[in-house]
Structures are given as C-alpha cells and as structure tokens.
C-alpha cells in the first residue's frame, strides 16, 4: 500500500468505532432487518458485523473493496440530495488497507455465496462457499500495519465504549431494524426492530428513562421534528444524552443543542442538561452532508429555520406535557 493510500484510509477510519459505523451503514443500505455487531478487546483485535441484507454477488466482491467503486453511483446532482448512508465508495477500501478482513456473502436466489479474504489491501482468497443470505464481515487486527495509528488508540474499554455508543445511535435512528451487540462474549444490547422509537429507547437507555420521555411531533416550514425529550425532572449533568438525527443520520449541531436548551430555559435546574432523541427531517438539499466522512458535525444551508423548528417543537411538547 502506498503511504497516500494509508493516509486516505486513516481519514475515514480513525478508530474501531468508525469501522463499525461504516459497515453497519452498509448493512442498512443493503436493506438488512437484523444486524449483529460483535467485538472483542474494544474492537481492536476483532469485529464482526452480520446482516441479512441483499448480499454481494460473488463476482462483485473484489470490486467492493476498490476505492470509489460504489454500487450506489450517483451524479453530481445526486450528491447534494443524499439519502443512502454510504456514497463515497471509500469505506471497505479504507478498512481493507489497514486490517485483515474476511467477508462472506450470498445474494438471495444464488445457490452458493462467496468468501473473500483481503489483508492490508491485498486479496488473499476468493472462493465459493455455502452461507446464509446476507453478509458477514470479520475485521481482525485493525491498524496492524500502521503502528502509529494503533498507538494513538485508547484503552480497549474506551474504544469499546465508543463502539457501544455508535451501535446505540444506529439502533435509535433505525428502530425498524433489530440490532444485537455482543461485547467480549456477552450480549449487551438487543433492540426489537418493531419500528417504535420508544421501544428502541427503552432497550438502549432503560425503562425508567424511557418512561419519563415526552413525545415531540412538530413541523415548521417544511422541517419535521419528531422523537422524544426528557422530562425537566430527568435532566442530566452532561450533554451526552442529547441525540440528534438529520434524515436518520447521527449529527452534532450547536444550533440544535442551543434550540433544545433554549426551549427548556425556564424549566431546567441550573447546571443540568435536557436529554433528547430527536429526528429532524428536511429536504436533503439544505444539508451539507459532504463534509469530512469521519466527522459528525453538520452544516445547514439555513441555520435559523432549523433552530426555530427545534425550539418550537420542544417548547410545544413541554407545554403540552405540563397541561
Ligand atoms: P459505499 O457504501 O459508499 O458504496 P463502501 O466501500 O462502504 O462504499 O461499500 C462498497 C460497496 O460494497 C457498496 O456500494 C455495496 O455495493 C457493497 N457492500 C458493502 N457492504 C455491503 C453489505 N453489508 N451488503 C451488501 N452490499 C455491501
Ligand atoms: Mg459504505
């Protein structure tokens, strides 16, 4: 691998949780109904993602690991209106450059599937094999060939916690998909995939938290805001439970945070922060998702209408709950 390629890989794949995010997004794009994520040692030694999505045709397996060889090809115009999660055709190539990967996949209707092994960007094996419909990817020894990156990682437990948070966000933004998370041989998370955000929130944050949530469902100027906010009594000591999605993508936005907190201004105890799980749906043209692939910070073409929509959505929900 050339240095340039390894650097490019490092920009998409910062740590184990970036691998999980990219690969689970691929499973979501593949139409999976069930996704299992298994990790060992914070994902550094072992990560497995299994889905029951559409699978990859045997002949397409090598192509999937080529940079920019996305099957989700779009025109320049499409790029501004992105709806699928992945669109750069960079993730698999980037992971493959810095890890050892084994993929097994079968498309519905194919008698046999394929098994593909690629290590440090080099194909090691490609053969037919029997396997269930869908895709399983095992990633071993992340950053084994980039010691500097490996050294930069935190302890297993912190990397594992980043992954857990990533899986939780993906589960909350896709309540219609059943997620299972296995960490060091223990099943630590399971969502039902019944389509209800509240039941996903219960699985992720516990019944006591979920039972205190106030529903939000509001539209302003073509911006829909829906989900849940915490009762003022359940505000937290940090912002770690403020979860925003824009068109089902987890994002960080100071505008959304400010709007949420402004709506609580008079009902919140000093030094406390409201929690939320809010979905903001707006026309994709007004969101710049073509920012750095590993970053979650988002820019809105128009910040003020987003602020207003979130602010009034939350305000309205709090007023209704108080009645
Ligand atoms: P992108 O998602 O941007 O297209 P990726 O590198 O993430 O690029 O994936 C490359 C291609 O591999 C995808 O376009 C898709 O065709 C295929 N692929 C990857 N993961 C899966 C999966 N879990 N199920 C089916 N196809 C997949
Ligand atoms: Mg992708």
Write up this protein.
The chain folds into two domains: 3-190, Heat Shock Protein 90, CATH 3.30.565; 212-322, Ribosomal Protein S5, domain 2, CATH 3.30.230.10. Helices cover 34% and strands 27% of the residues. The protein is built from eleven helices and 15 strands. It has helices spanning 3-12, 16-29, 61-64, 76-80, 91-97, 147-152, 156-173, 197-205, 207-211, 254-264, 303-322, and strands at residues 34-40, 46-51, 100-106, 113-119, 122-129, 134-140, 178-183, 186-190, 213-220, 223-230, 242-246, 249-251, 276-281, 287-288, 299-300. Helix 1 crosses helix 5 (91-97). The longest helix is centred in the C-terminal third of the chain and has 20 residues, at 303-322. The radius of gyration is 20 Å and the shape is elongated. The termini are far apart. 41% of the residues are buried. Mean pLDDT is 90; it is low at 74-82. It binds adenosine-5'-diphosphate and magnesium ion (MG). Adenosine-5'-diphosphate is lined by residues 22, 26-27, 30, 51, 53-56, 64, 70-72, 86-93, 135. Belongs to the DNA mismatch repair MutL/HexB family. Residues 201-319 form the DNA mismatch repair protein S5 domain. This is DNA mismatch repair protein MutL.
């Amino acid at each position: 691998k050339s240095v340039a390629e390894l650097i490019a890989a490092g920009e998409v794949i910062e740590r184990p949780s970036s691998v999980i995010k990219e690969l689970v997004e691929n499973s979501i794009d593949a139409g999976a109904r069930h996704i299992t994520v298994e990790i060992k040692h914070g994902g550094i030694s072992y990560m497995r993602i299994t889905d029951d999505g559409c699978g990859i045709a045997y002949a397409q397996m090598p192509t999937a690991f080529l940079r920019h060889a996305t099957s989700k090809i779009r025109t320049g115009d499409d790029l501004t209106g992105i709806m699928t999660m992945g669109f750069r055709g960079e993730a698999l190539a980037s992971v493959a450059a810095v890890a050892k990967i084994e993929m097994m996949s079968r498309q519905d209707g194919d008698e046999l599937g394929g098994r593909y092994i690629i290590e440090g960007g080099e194909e090691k094996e490609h053969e037919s094999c029997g396997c269930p419909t869908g895709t399983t990817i095992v990633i071993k020894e992340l950053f084994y060939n980039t010691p500097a990156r490996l050294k930069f990682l935190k302890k297993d437990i912190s990397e594992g916690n980043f992954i857990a948070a990533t899986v939780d966000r993906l589960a909350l933004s896709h309540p219609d998909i059943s997620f299972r998370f296995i960490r060091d041989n223990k099943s630590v998370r399971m969502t039902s995939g019944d389509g209800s955000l509240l039941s996903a929130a219960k699985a992720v944050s516990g019944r006591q938290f979920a039972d205190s949530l106030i529903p939000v469902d509001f539209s302003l100027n073509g911006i829909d805001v829906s989900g849940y906010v915490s009762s003022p009594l359940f505000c937290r000591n940090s912002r770690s439970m403020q979860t925003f999605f824009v068109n089902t993508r987890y994002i960080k936005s100071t505008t959304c945070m400010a709007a949420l907190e402004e709506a609580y201004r008079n009902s919140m105890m000093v030094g406390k922060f409201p929690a939320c799980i809010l979905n903001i749906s707006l026309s994709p043209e007004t969101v710049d998702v073509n920012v750095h692939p590993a970053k979650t910070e988002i820019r809105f073409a128009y910040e003020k209408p987003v602020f207003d929509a979130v602010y009034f959505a939350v305000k309205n929900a709090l007023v209704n709950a108080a009645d």
